[in-house]
Each structure stands twice: as structure tokens, then as C-alpha cells.
Amino acid sequence: MNAITRIESNPKLSRAVVHNGVAWFSGIVATDWSEDIAGQTRQVLARLDELLEGVGSNRSRILSAQIWMKDMVADFDRINEVWSQWFTPGETPARATSQVTFDEADIRLELIVVAAVKA
After folding, report:
1. What interhelical angle do 72-86 and 37-54 show, nearest 10?
2. If both were cysteines, with which of 15, 42, 82, 116 could 8 make a disulfide (CB 3.0 to 4.6 Å apart)?
3. CA pair distance 89, 97, nearest whole angstrom
4. Do residues 45 and 82 touch, judged by C-beta distance below 8 A?
5. From the CB of residue 109, how many other CB atoms can be counted at a distance below 10 Å?
């Protein structure tokens, strides 16, 4: 039986769960909400880099991503610009993007990913 590893767990959630060569990550938001959408996106991607490294993966091994945005009309192009610069061409994951309402008014996006862990 393959072990299930839970990363940064608390009573509500685990930051990541790894099983059978796959890592599922909880939603990641920026820590400095005063930043614009590009700044918040860069913060989220930097945190994701750290989390991926912590489970033995990297951005080239992201299988799927869900991006939840506060305002798709205003921010979609700017998120895509930062997103496209972060990935090596040809290594982008499957992706879905949706508009949502966040509890905190200054949060502009939340990112959820699934990644393969290096064998």
C-alpha cells in the first residue's frame, strides 16, 4: 500500500497531499494583498515553487491548474502575461480559470494545482 503524506497540516487542511507519485495542493493566495494582480500572481507562483520543491517536484511537472480570480475582465490578460513568463514554452498544464468572490476584498486570485512528483 502506498503511503499518503500530508504537508503543513492543520485542523482545516493540508497545504499539500502526496500519494502514488502525485501532489495535490490547497489553494495558494498572495501574502501581500496591497499588490496589484501581477504582483499577487508573482507572489503565488513563488510560493508554489517553494511548495513544489518541498515535495520533490517543479513547475515543469504541474499537471493541472485552477485559477480563481476576483475580476476576470480586469485581470485576465495580466495574469496570463505573468503565467506565460513563468513557464517554459511547451510545459504549461491543463488549466481552468473562474471568477469568484473572496472573503477578503483585496485578494485578487487563488491558485490550486496538481503536480507529478519526481520518481
Report:
1. 40
2. 15
3. 19
4. yes
5. 23
Q: How far apart are CA 33 and CA 92, in angstroms?
A: 26
List pLDDT tens digits, range 44-66.
Answer: 999 999 999 999 999 999 999 99
**Beta strand pairing status for 62-69 and 94-99?**
parallel
- CATH number of the domain within which 66 lies: 3.30.1330.40
Find the domain containing 49 and state its range.
4-116
d(CA 28, CA 26): 6
Burial of 40 (0-12, 13-18, 19+ CB in 10 A): buried
